[in-house]
């Protein structure tokens, strides 16, 4: 077999970022301590160039490397979103790591490696590559979660994330083994070709279920969520911001690609399981969030709850009439969640002090009077997480509920609406604390932090006024997937 | 030749022991060993299947799993050593600085 340029075109953006990250690892050795902003800048340049390269590939549909990886509308959409997440992650980290005494160059390199893993996840067309991508995105995140060593919370977060993450990997690998045994293939399109002949059966179903368990851990769906609050609270806030958005996007991308390409024949079993997972995740995530007093923990439970909303979109994946609209709604919601989530974490970072101070909801008292712009931005993010107009979250939930109703899952939509109402209670508590209570909050003013928070707040409102083009891009992205 | 079902049953047993170890043991090193057991159970199943199916992609997958498991060991042991230096214990029940 010979490799031609067209093969490399498939992995172009991914390869570019990987090589850039490797070079950066070396360059960083020559950058003196205290000058690590250079590494941050270079990593941002790498992400931006890769983003540009990815956007030139819009419309490209190709398989490469013996059908191990593909590039298509879906992977381009997800990759663009991931690269933007990476850029936001660098922007949020820039001032934060300096202030917290974490300014080590490997922070940015690890972040880049994690982004490459996430991108590979979106492009994987073979279970072997799915596994590799899963590890490539996870291992840097384990290190990043423990980056604030020797602080106990951060180390604990790292170890818990690592143990549960590796546990989840075990499920994915064993599931892959069973699928391979049942069908004789690890390639997604060969699996579906084999499965549709109807000769598979129990082994394939168990394998698919184990893979679902593994990804359930990664996207923090109940009942595989127990690591999430501790890890999100203990990890440095800038890491959590990136991890909660990026890992979720990549996890859902893989879930979507694997299940819609390889296991559509199992939809009859899987739909019920996904229905139950989505419902339990929404209910538990939102109800436990009510009792939280720490903002990082609150956002962690909010992240669990949102995994439930996004899972709703996958429930009708075996129904050819609604799945396109439904999964497009899921993609749209991923964008809405990523933007809002980064913004909310930006506000958290602005108020956070050393030694885990400034992280209680009570510390937000008086923010409305003292820093009206920051409080306004936080209000936008909280409203968007509830799903209140005029925000992206509202539009996302509207598309989601509509798709679920079209699919005929009335009860799931009802659960979604009711849990959203419940969530209003704890999100609005933050808003009420900011505006109605007196306090003297002190925030950090950092250029890149302010830009990120401001830009995400504006995007959250502006895009919600004209969401049609984003939604149709998401819908077009899925055309070739099915 | 030993029938393939035997290998699969053995690998399923190993996998279950691994899962049980992760759930019930409190020492991160033992938990980690249990996770390795899960991965190796999968390796055994893949190798058995690929020898029956005469397929090479399974064998290659096993190499990937072994290599990645080694990378995981590097990170995992580093984390455990760091925690031991800070807390002088690695019992997961003692890792409870966060509540809520």
List the helices and strands and how they pair.
The complex is a heterodimer of chains A (482) and B (100).
Chain A (H helix, E strand, L loop, with lengths): L4 H6 L1 H16 L9 H20 L5 E3 L4 E3 L1 H27 L6 H18 L3 H19 L6 H32 L4 H8 L6 H17 L9 H7 L2 H26 L4 H24 L4 H20 L8 H29 L15 H4 L1 H15 L5 H15 L3 H27 L10 H19 L2 H10 L5
Antiparallel strand pairs in A: 1-2
Helix pairs in contact in A: 2-3, 2-5, 3-4, 4-5, 4-11, 4-14, 4-19, 4-20, 5-6, 5-11, 6-7, 6-11, 7-9, 7-10, 9-11, 10-11, 10-13, 11-13, 11-14, 12-13, 12-18, 13-14, 13-17, 13-18, 14-16, 14-17, 14-19, 14-20, 16-18, 16-19, 17-18, 17-19
Chain B lengths: L3 H21 L3 H26 L2 H32 L13
Helix pairs in contact in B: 1-2, 2-3
Percentage of residues in DSSP E strands of chain A? under 5%
Give the total of beta strands of chain A.
2
Q: Give the averaged pLDDT of chain A, no decimals.
A: 91
Query: Spans of chain B of 5+ residues with little confidence (pLDDT < 50)?
Result: none
Helix content, binned percent of chain B: over 70%
The first-to-last residue Cα distance of chain B is: 56 Å
Radius of gyration of chain B: 17 Å
Radius of gyration of chain A: 21 Å
Q: Look at the helices and sheets of chain A and give the structural class.
A: mainly alpha
Count, helices of chain A:
20
Overall form of chain B: elongated
How much of the sequence of chain B is in beta strands?
under 5%
Number of helical runs of chain B? 3
Q: Largest interface: which pair?
A: A-B, 46 and 45 residues
Strand order of the largest sheet of chain A: 1-2
How many DSSP-defined strands of chain B? Answer: 0
Order of helices and strands of chain A: HHHEEHHHHHHHHHHHHHHHHH
- Report the end-to-end length of chain A measured between terminal Cα atoms: 29 Å
Helices and strands of chain B: which structural class?
mainly alpha
Largest sheet of chain B: none
Assembly status: heterodimer
